[in-house]
Sequence to fold (128 residues):
Amino acid sequence: MKFLIDANGILQVSAREQRSGKEAEIQVQPSYGLTDEQVEGMLLESFDYAEEDFRQRQVIEARNQAETILAALEKGRNSPAWGQLTSDEHQRITKQAKALKEAKTGKTTKPSAGPSTTSTRERCASLS
Fold:
């Protein structure tokens, strides 16, 4: 008899009868967790929403960058160099900082369109 357990917890048992040389093999999967169909469905769904997930990541990264810029601006306002700027430069910086704060607090840059109109499942089905 031979027992093998793979990284996914699947047990493969094989046996060979010595006299007749007859072999048998069985695969034992745990009864908990997800079925292959569920895993496949989740994988296809992740492809469907990958573009939206990427867009949301870009928005989060842009907000983080805006926070960094605004923090640097506040630090700069406390610097002696701030006093050397003209009132026009102060106004332009203040106006841009206000616009950046408003953009940062916005919910999204544009409404979500969701996944593409042709889902990954439909594209895969059309190939069959």
